[in-house]
Design goal:
about 45% helix; about 25% strand
Length: about 230
C-alpha cells in the first residue's frame, strides 16, 4: 500500500502544480471562458480591495489619456470589454467635461453586480451588460473607443476577441488594451504576445499608430487607431 502512495507522489505533485498554474497564474483561462467567469464570480466581493493600489493610478495613466484622445468627439460612445466591477467606466464618467456614454460588459454576473452597485447613480453615463467578448451583439462601426484591460489573456481566443473589438470600432476610433508581460507569460502560451506580435496582429486588423507603453508590473498598455480599411 505504501509503495503505491510513494509511486503516486510525482503525479500528485504534477497535479498540484498544474492546479496552481491554472488558478493563480492563468486564472483558469485554459478551462474555458465560463470557468474564468466562475472564478471571478467567487472573487467579486474582494476584487476592488485587491486592485485598490493600481486603481489609484489609472485616472492619470488610463482615463485622462483616453479622454484626451476622444476630445474631438462631442459625445463619445465607449465599449469597455471585461469591465469587471466597472473601474474604467467610473473613471471615465468622473473625467471633467466628459459628456459621453460607456457600455461595460463582462461574463461574470457577480462582477457586474458589484459594478451596478457602484454605478447606480450614473444611469445616463454608464450601462452594463452580461455578454461574451467573442460574440459582441453590437453592429459594425458602433463605438468611438473600445477598451479591454487585464482581460485579453483570459479569453479562450484572444485574437477572435480583438477581431470583434475591431469590428465594432468606427473608422478613426481608439483601441486601448492591456497585454500581459513578464516571466510568467511563459505559462500562458497563446494568450499573451511579445510587443512585435501584438503590433503585427493589430496592423492585420487595420490598426495604425500602435503604441506600447508599460502600465503595471505585469502589463503593457497598447494604444491603436482604427483606419476602417
Amino acid at each position: 500500500m505504501y509503495w503505491l502512495l510513494i509511486a503516486a507522489v510525482p503525479t500528485l505533485i504534477l497535479l498540484a502544480l498544474m492546479s496552481w498554474l491554472l488558478v493563480l497564474v492563468a486564472e483558469e483561462a485554459y478551462l474555458g471562458d465560463r470557468a474564468v467567469a466562475f472564478l471571478y464570480d467567487r472573487a467579486a466581493g474582494v476584487y476592488d480591495t485587491v486592485k485598490a493600489r493600481s486603481a489609484r493610478h489609472d485616472s492619470r495613466r488610463v482615463a485622462l489619456p483616453l479622454a484626451r484622445a476622444l476630445s474631438g468627439v462631442p459625445r463619445p460612445l465607449i465599449l469597455d470589454v471585461a469591465t469587471g466591477t466597472g473601474r474604467l467606466p467610473l473613471l471615465m464618467a468622473s473625467q471633467r467635461g466628459f459628456a459621453g456614454r460607456i457600455i461595460g460588459l463582462d461574463l461574470s454576473a457577480n462582477m457586474l453586480a458589484e459594478a451596478r452597485r457602484k454605478t447606480e447613480g450614473l444611469p445616463d453615463a454608464i450601462s452594463l451588460l452580461r455578454e461574451d467578448a467573442l460574440t459582441l451583439s453590437f453592429g459594425d462601426n458602433t463605438f468611438d473607443a473600445v477598451t479591454c484591460l487585464e482581460g485579453l489573456e483570459l479569453f479562450s481566443r484572444p485574437e477572435a476577441a480583438l477581431r470583434e473589438m475591431a469590428r465594432v470600432l468606427r473608422s478613426g476610433g481608439v483601441l486601448l488594451i492591456s497585454n500581459r508581460v513578464g516571466p510568467e507569460t511563459i505559462l500562458l502560451p497563446g494568450r499573451t504576445y511579445r510587443e512585435g506580435q501584438i503590433r503585427t496582429i493589430l496592423r492585420g486588423l487595420s490598426f495604425t499608430s500602435v503604441q506600447v507603453k508599460r502600465w503595471q508590473q505585469h502589463y503593457d498598455l497598447v494604444w491603436a487607431t482604427n483606419t476602417g480599411e
